[in-house]
TrEMBL record, chains A, B:
Protein name as it appears in the record: alkaline phosphatase
Secretion signal span: 1-19
Protein residues bound to Zn(2+): D174, D442, H446, D487, H488, H606
Family assignment from sequence similarity: Belongs to the alkaline phosphatase family.
Domain of life: Eukaryota
Lineage: Eukaryota, Fungi, Dikarya, Ascomycota, Pezizomycotina
Organism: Ophiostoma piceae (strain UAMH 11346) (Sap stain fungus)
Amino acid sequence: MLSMRRAFLLLAAASATTAQTYQRLGTCPTLGCVIPPDQQDFLPGQQFDIRFEVHAPVNGSEANGGIPDEAFSVTIAKDGGQTKSIAEFFGITEEPAIEKWSFSWYEDLYAKDAGEASLVHVASKIYRRVALYEPGDYTVTLKYYSTETTTATWTVRPLAEHKRAKNVILFVGDGMTTNMITAARLLGHKTVNGKYQSLLKLDEFPVLGHQMTHSIDSFMTDSANSASALYSGHKSTVNAMGVYADSSPDLFDDPKVETIVELLRRIWGSAWGAVSTAFLADATPIALTAHTRSRGTYGPLIEQALNGVNNYSWPHTGGPDVYFGGGAENFLPGSGSYKGQDYFAKFAEKGYSISLNKTALEAAPDSERALGVFCKSNLPVWIDRNVFPENLNSYTNDPSGAKKAATDLPGLKEMTLKAIDVLHKRSGNEGFFLMSEAASIDKQMHVLDYQRALGDLLELDDTIRATFKKLEELGELDHTLIVVTADHGHGFDVFGNADTKYLSEQPTDREKRSAVGIYQNSGLSQYTVEQEGVSYNTGSNFPVNWDPRYAIAAGMGASPDRRENYQINRTGSRIPNTRGYVSAFDNTDGFVVNGTLPADETQGVHSLTDVPVYARGPCQETFGGTFNSIDVFFKIATCLGLGQSTNKTLTDSACSAK
Amino acid sequence: MLSMRRAFLLLAAASATTAQTYQRLGTCPTLGCVIPPDQQDFLPGQQFDIRFEVHAPVNGSEANGGIPDEAFSVTIAKDGGQTKSIAEFFGITEEPAIEKWSFSWYEDLYAKDAGEASLVHVASKIYRRVALYEPGDYTVTLKYYSTETTTATWTVRPLAEHKRAKNVILFVGDGMTTNMITAARLLGHKTVNGKYQSLLKLDEFPVLGHQMTHSIDSFMTDSANSASALYSGHKSTVNAMGVYADSSPDLFDDPKVETIVELLRRIWGSAWGAVSTAFLADATPIALTAHTRSRGTYGPLIEQALNGVNNYSWPHTGGPDVYFGGGAENFLPGSGSYKGQDYFAKFAEKGYSISLNKTALEAAPDSERALGVFCKSNLPVWIDRNVFPENLNSYTNDPSGAKKAATDLPGLKEMTLKAIDVLHKRSGNEGFFLMSEAASIDKQMHVLDYQRALGDLLELDDTIRATFKKLEELGELDHTLIVVTADHGHGFDVFGNADTKYLSEQPTDREKRSAVGIYQNSGLSQYTVEQEGVSYNTGSNFPVNWDPRYAIAAGMGASPDRRENYQINRTGSRIPNTRGYVSAFDNTDGFVVNGTLPADETQGVHSLTDVPVYARGPCQETFGGTFNSIDVFFKIATCLGLGQSTNKTLTDSACSAK
């Protein structure tokens, strides 16, 4: 307890310089770093790496002479157990070598403006691929600079050796908040006298929770490290996935943690898949297998998805059974792919069917592993595919690399239903894990195109509805835990209506604002009111009119400078701001609003807010109330019996040949 | 079914003119109005009035000659039962007289700008104080203008004749959203490496739900009609409480519905109380007993709270057992009180102890009915009472009417704990109902003073924590259903940090915005970091520093023009905007941001968003998932056994003498 208290005091003392705009290393307020740091949780048997760093700042407020202590010592003890060296405790026969590097950072905005960086020299060691099997608390101690100590207490969660759910489907509405779900309901469903005549499928989930999305070292998150929390039970740093970020220059040597699909394949040999409306190397789908602190290394991460981590010994899944999304640029041979290789060919060599359009997807055999890449970059959004399909022709995104538009496109629903067919067929009694992501809720909110974001949210809801039906047909509904959540939010909010005709016709910016009706003057949603000549045939759970005269008036807690008219952009996604200034072509009849973000920001940013978690199926009762993002992993992993007391590992061949 | 379909078609046809910025009568898209309208739900035995209106527009798009049909007929039939006249069905011996009036409205903003009002003549009848005891569907039919028909189908919910919870405490965080709860946690509780070292009491609730807050006739709500939904199971119109809004000129003759405390007192004779940090005549506390479509009629509503509705026969509670809050101006004899009468004297006559400060509150006997009014208007907020107490002297708010400041003030916690003592003492085996409102979460969000709003949210959480402890001490915890929810939201969002020192020192508005740190640059909360010389002694669940250099950067989805610097206002609540222009004295070192609301708005407005519902205690399992605001009433009323198959009414003397 003494050491815990000491660590706390050091943290408090140092945080004034290290815990804000810029940080030396977010998880290391002292000059000695244990990574994973204090208070991290592990599933029994979950594999991970341990890095120690000793920092020697050359200049700046922490300067200590600039010579890092290479003679640091590291020990570990289980509560009530013997203290042992790390190597002895984990039975590591060869003590790792000391590594050395340097990095620099700015202490605050003044230092940055002045170009005065603080230089830090580092000595480090890393112990790779270890695991703790016995539940309880473990204290790791780093001693350095003769008298300094940094401790970390880790908790191994209870054993969970038996499966309660055969299958798990995790839907991620990227950036999706309760505010957005409320707005989507308003657009897609009609009220009569205060009562909805139909509801979202989300509204029918029996259990609801909230999860906290913050990063390990900042209160805001991005989709990389929030995905890591959901998939591995370990929060990370912005841009990092499947690792704790260290300070080394190598983006691929950071200490790793094992993910849900690595565990599932290693322990049960189950099938797994990922579906996304983003490019497949994007954070949410790729974080299932990625181990890097740089989410932008797309090519190498597709290689990791197929073949596992290739620079260190590490559990690997043998590749997904299903991989559907966009992002052909990371598969086609060229600058976007790993070492310029042809990853369509590499997947095909491993027995994958390859689909480049919806027609091929539908025809792909359910019995084979399936790769489907339907365009370059992100899939066009639901509104452009269904309401303004002429916009599809404006892209040059054919997945074959041909300079043409991809037009034979599946949506999230088609991809997800096919994924379930393949996974069900291939998994047999072992069950499967599927992650299905509505990625453009986030991407469209970033560019303030909330109509397109809400279209994709309604598509997600429609997909969940269809998934229930599909699982019921397969006889799997009651064996499947379905979880729907988000990785973070955006500060989107609806606050009234706007008479878009009136707004457009007012002569000045201030007068245009009078078009907004608040409180009783918001009236009822006009998105559900039939209008002659307006029909998209998009089904009963979508608006019948996306461009009514009385539109929702909505905005963001934070945004760049932009122009508002509250109408949908009919020609494609909104581009509110270019190079820090209001786009000349955005909402030309609207009024200019200056933003609250740094003036050079062209997009909106993420929100602090807790996000909802919906659950249905085996273990649903564990998802009520409020919990940390990492607990989503622990709840799912526990339900899947992944907390093992021994190194339960199928042979490598069992994994990769499956 | 034919008549239902016809009603739907009429609705669809008419809504283009009547369902937006201005509406003829929100619940009546046709010219014949049944109020309560189609699709309303009732508790078995819940008393209500029924109004019929026939509209005759003189001009405008609906003009029909301007002579309302006085010979309309009205019938009712239970599913599978006989159709009877309203009078016969309810055993009303004297058919009500025809009433006549006129009103006018604007069809849209163009009509308003031009001053072209549409005039409507009305013929109407109202049937008062009826009830339906048998669960099932009832269809009410209004025939008018020879060939026209408007129908309404009402549903009587299942019987619930037995109490499952002895006591119910309903906490209302006015305007409180998940975004705000997340921000309050960040300010009041410390994280170490992504793990909170302590949590909100809200975070410990086992069951979480979301409720939809929309009005009956617009998708935005205010606190009056949202309170009505929570207390009566009937959504209403902005500014209306305990009634369905009709079109008549009289603000007190609208058709009423019975509220939770009227039901509880009539059926079980239980004790009840209301506590609020607002003035007691404000919407959330007063809606427990108020029946009017105009929330601003403060004096008459205090009279209703004490003596019941005085213009019609109606169930009344005999007055609250506990009534604690602000708003002395509606009790002191004068322009703010009903007929200029002294309501302190009137409450005292009925046996209430009267407390005008915290000292008196503490000394008040637990065995007597208790009125506590601690200031004029709203109570000063937690931050001004605890962090900047010198600000209290700037008010002239003494509840005695003396021209001085009220400084001996209780907070929500002190009022709530005393309320529980009194209610527990007085209720015996019958149990009690308490509503406790943190009102200034909303009031401070309106003026964009989110720091003060979050202070009051943390005070609410602290109050809930203390309530659990108090109930445990009394042996009542497991007999008490505790529900925490909001009546609506505001579009508040945290999106990063701001280096307030840097912001202040930058020379231009655009450069000041560079002070905002987003994503990894948000760092950790500095509100929980001890700083020398800064201590408020406000306890472990509050910030230790409300004015750190690195503050949260936060904003609203909608706001008036204002100036931002992200610092707390040390001298009192923020006044961002006066008369539609940025206040010259607000955040003088900040940068100007133009708003998105009508330019003459001086405050922020409510949000569409669903709000969280936390539940713990008997019946907690019924609060999971997503539901309508009216269902909060039905869940609580069902748990309290208020759905009765007969007119279970204690004698009037039993009520009022209690």
